[in-house]
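R.M. (postdoc): so does anyone remember the format we settled on? I'll just put the structure tokens first.
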């Protein structure tokens, strides 16, 4: 995998997570039941479940545990799929999978918090609720329609008026909001490391610095190679999401890689931070170019949005984020944003996570469209269930063929300009009045 220029950035999480264990590179020839490619939330959750079921699992990552988006994410555990309205989801999926996926995604935050508790993972889990704040009358109208539909499935969402929102969030930049009580946050690198330790303690082997360079099926088994080793297994799970390369040649063409970016402060004094998210809610907004933020128990502020990847691979947009943070929370106008980092995620054309089984014994699950903390965990669990014998028609995700995304090249080339236009539209809609 080509190193990404943003790898030199330093995510805050590396300074605040408990130290991780060593995961030496794969060396020599090995036999396993399952090879998992990618040690993020998806791959680690699959490995943990498989190891617990007594399956021999080897996890390989080009970097290390949490090297990809899982160790760089905003760590907001938001249930529900992004972008699609309930009506559109129903049209895309049909009634059976609509109902299944709606229930699964609404329960995805509870599922993750229960997993964390079960394995006693030390990752600062907190389920204080997620505030989605609405920037325009149109967004409010859409949110009300969505809320009625999701609450019919037991989402428990509540509308929050402007005055209450100001108290809960510390910002007056939004007209109203929706509170989803099941939302929360984790220290994501600590979660990834905790999942890895739980999987290892149940017998999984994990190797960092072990980029898989070839994947082929021979004599009824799968063979993967890294620079210094090889694994033969009955199943391979590809859990590479935004970092997907050409191991399955058609897979990268089915997703659009985008680069969310984040900034974080050192712990801030009480007089600066006390009015911001005092109840420990997470917050994100309804703009096309979204903002998301959280306040840490130690008084740090973390603010995120979308970065822009230049031709040289470097990611920009951090100064814009700092300006936006000061717009949303004027209390932060003078603070120093010491940390700046980004990572890569995968968008899909229909904005749904995709589960593929292109050949017998080969699974790929990806495409969380920026909402992967809870859903990657679900996908990992579901792929493990499939390996353990679940019939495809019983899974919450339909098994779908890998389809090339229309106009993908043009979308990648035009992303910088598109972000500028979308920001402008957001700004026009966000104008007071
Ligand atoms: C800055 C940022 C903020 C985000 N904020 C949120 C948020 O607040 N809430 C939310 O729900 N979601 C958020 N997301 C999205 C979420 O983090 C991801 O959807 C999720 O972490 C994906 O997990 P994953 O395990 O599928 O992939 P990743 O964690 O990206 O892991 C993929 C792994 O595959 C490895 N890999 C790739 N190719 C190979 C190969 N050939 N051989 C070996 N290994 C390979 C990579 O090294 C990488 O470690 C954010 C993402 C980013 C980047």
């Amino acid at each position: 995998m080509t190193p990404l220029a943003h790898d030199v950035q330093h995510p805050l999480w590396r300074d605040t997570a408990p130290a991780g264990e060593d995961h030496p590179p794969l060396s020599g020839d090995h036999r396993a039941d399952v090879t998992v490619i990618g040690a993020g939330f998806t791959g680690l959750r699959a490995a943990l479940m498989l190891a617990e079921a007594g399956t021999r699992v080897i996890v390989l990552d080009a970097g290390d545990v949490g090297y990809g988006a899982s160790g760089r994410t905003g760590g907001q555990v938001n249930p529900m799929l992004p972008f699609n309205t309930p009506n559109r989801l129903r049209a895309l999926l049909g009634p059976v999978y609509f109902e299944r996926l709606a229930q699964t995604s609404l329960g995805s935050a509870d599922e993750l918090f229960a997993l964390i508790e079960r394995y006693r993972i030390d990752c600062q889990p907190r389920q204080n609720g997620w505030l989605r704040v609405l920037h325009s009358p149109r967004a409010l109208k859409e949110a009300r329609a969505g809320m009625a539909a999701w609450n019919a499935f037991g989402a428990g969402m509540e509308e929050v008026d402007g005055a209450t929102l100001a108290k809960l969030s510390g910002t007056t930049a939004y007209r109203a909001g929706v509170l989803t009580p099941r939302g929360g946050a984790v220290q994501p690198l600590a979660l990834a490391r905790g999942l890895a330790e739980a999987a290892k303690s149940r017998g999984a082997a994990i190797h960092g610095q072990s980029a898989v360079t070839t994947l082929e099926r021979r004599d009824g088994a799968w063979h993967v190679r890294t620079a210094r080793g090889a694994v033969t297994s009955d199943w391979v799970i590809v859990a590479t999401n935004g970092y997907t390369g050409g191991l399955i040649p058609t897979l990268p063409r089915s997703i659009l890689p985008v680069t969310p970016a984040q900034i974080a402060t050192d712990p801030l004094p009480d007089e600066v931070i006390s009015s911001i998210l005092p109840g420990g809610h997470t917050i994100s907004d309804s703009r096309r170019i979204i903002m998301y933020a959280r306040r840490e128990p130690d008084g740090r502020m973390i603010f995120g949005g979308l970065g822009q990847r230049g031709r040289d691979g470097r990611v920009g947009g951090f100064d814009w984020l700092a300006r936006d943070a000061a717009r949303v929370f004027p209390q932060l106008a003078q603070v120093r944003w010491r940390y700046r980092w980004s990572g890569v995620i995968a968008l899909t054309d229909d904005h749904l996570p995709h589960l593929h089984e292109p050949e017998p014994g080969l699974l790929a699950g990806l495409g969380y469209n920026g909402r992967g903390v809870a859903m990657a965990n679900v996908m990992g669990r579901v792929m493990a269930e499939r390996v353990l014998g679940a019939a495809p028609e019983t899974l919450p995700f339909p098994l779908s063929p890998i389809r090339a995304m229309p106009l993908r090249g043009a979308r990648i080339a035009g992303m910088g300009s598109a972000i500028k236009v979308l920001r402008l539209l957001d700004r026009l809609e966000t104008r007071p009045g």
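R.M.: ...and that's the designed sequence above, right after the tokens. Also worth knowing: The first helix runs from residue 13 to 16. The chain has a mean pLDDT of 94.
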